[in-house]
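Before a computer can learn anything about folding, someone has to put a protein's shape into writing. The outcome of that step, for a single protein, is printed below:
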Amino acid sequence: MHFGISLELDSEVEKKISIIRSISRSLFEYFQMRDYGQDLQNITIGIICVLERKGYEDWFKVRKPKYREFEKTRGLDKSSIIVEPTFTYDIKLNAAYILKHDDTEIRKYFVSEIINSLSNLDYLPRKVKDFDKERFKIDLEKCLS
């Protein structure tokens, strides 16, 4: 399984998130050799962490959870592109909180938000039957502890 975290960051916040990048790398490595079933091969959590500025609130909205099935397409150069079953969702972190705290507190906050976000897995479509959601949740919590 491939597990990834994508980051949408404010330039001020980017200086403070080395701990989030470190956790992200650890999660990627931890899940790389694990298998939870054929119906879901990739999970990506989008992290939105920007300082809200008046008039720009709509620029960084949390997108709805999205499942994409296996598909085979052709690239512009006629090469074959295979997209494995993927689930993506976003969470929004409080940038002001991150700017005020040290790595230890940021880690606690980030881990808590990731674990709380696992309820998004309930948005997987019913056709996703071959995915051990509970074992995935347990492994994620174990990796983050």
